[in-house]
Amino acid sequence: MSGQVPEHVGVLGGGRMGSGVAHAFLLAGATVTIVDRDDAAAGAARDRVVRAVEQSVARGTTTQTAATLTARLHAGTDVVAFAPARLVVEAVPEDVGLKTAALRRVEDVLAPGAVLATNTSSISIDLLADHVRRPETFVGMHFFNPVPASALVEVVRGAATSDETTDRARGWVEAIRKTAVVVNDAPGFASSRLGIAIGLEAVRMLAEGVAGAADIDAAMTLGYKHPVGPLQLTDLVGLDVRLGIAEYLARELGPRFEPPALLRALVAAGHLGRKSGRGFYVWPDGGAPTPADLTGLASLTGQASR
Ligand SMILES: NC(=O)c1ccc[n+]([C@@H]2O[C@H](COP(=O)([O-])OP(=O)(O)OC[C@H]3O[C@@H](n4cnc5c(N)ncnc54)[C@H](O)[C@@H]3O)[C@@H](O)[C@H]2O)c1
């Protein structure tokens, strides 16, 4: 296990998650190379990381200067730049075809022994491992959004991931001052599976009239010290996103993850949560959310609502 980050870290796809991963490894002392699909995307990725670095310096999260940190940041479009990396984290969009092609391209330039990690939030590690030549050095590193504010990384080991690869990934997570949980490859890993289970039950309770949205959320924030209640969290993540994950888990794990009719009705009505201004709550610009009136929609589901 390593208490240090690798000297060189590669990040494929410098979007929301990739730029966060790059920022975390830069702060921990690595030289970080981001590769994105074209010059514009690579430039945007670099700008995102530079902004995040400047914020960290302003907040006093690091004693290094922004200039020192960004001197170790590179962004481009050719995966050949990953050749010196001991770790590459893939963070391209959640699409099996895109990811398998990208992983193969990266593996072609990596030195034997380098670890190739994927930040997939739902795709099976074993499924992706079927497309790489060295599955023993392939592992999931599931970062959470936003990366700088999140304390957790799920290290997801596939059937072929070696103990050494798992230990190195766990050590690197600790070196960027986050906590690793090691999870065997399974649909939804640990975090999404538990989070969705609570979220779906909260929607069913709302539809059955057990309690209103604010009371259901308070039961978890005050009763269980969750930072956000399950219905408000569903609004923040996006009802459409959570519906997609629930459908996937229902296919993989059975009917206990079947999405409630109320969730489907809200998505069909375009009530997707904060991003559309309305979900289980109404989200006024700059104001505090208030529980939405779901009477009409709940009746569409054929279930009682209060
Ligand atoms: N957003 C989240 O909350 C979250 C949380 C955990 C994990 N994830 C996972 O992280 C991954 C990335 O998600 P995101 O939200 O950062 O997406 P994003 O759309 O913000 O970023 C994707 C990046 O990949 C780049 N890209 C696309 N095709 C590419 C290619 N062929 N080669 C190189 N770069 C390419 C895009 O230009 C973009 O910069 C997904 O697998 C997602 O499931 C997302």
| CATH architectural type of the largest domain | 3-Layer(aba) Sandwich
Number of domains: 2
- Ligand names: nicotinamide-adenine-dinucleotide
Question: What is the percent of helical residues?
Answer: 40-55%
Could you describe the largest sheet, including whether it forms a barrel? 8 strands, mixed
Oligomer class: single chain
**Shape summary:** globular
Uncertain runs with pLDDT below 50, 5 residues or more? 302-306
Instruction: Give the C-level CATH assignment of the largest domain.
Output: Alpha Beta
Q: Would you tell me the overall average pLDDT?
A: 94
| CATH-defined topology of the largest domain | Rossmann fold
What is the strand arrangement across the widest sheet?
A: 3-2-1-4-5-6-7-8
**Residues in β-strands, percent:** 5-15%
The first-to-last residue Cα distance is 53 Å
What structural category arises from helix and sheet content? alpha/beta
Q: What is the C-alpha radius of gyration, as a whole number of Å? A: 21 Å
Query: What order do the SSEs take from the amino end to the carboxyl end, as H and E?
Result: EHEHHEEHEHEEHEHHHHHEEH
Number of helices: 12
The CATH homologous superfamily name of the largest domain equals NAD(P)-binding Rossmann-like Domain
Q: Total number of β-strand segments? A: 10
GO biological process, one term: fatty acid beta-oxidation
Organism: Xylanimonas protaetiae
Pathway: Lipid metabolism; butanoate metabolism
Binding site for NAD(+): 13-18, 36, 94, 99, 121, 145, 275
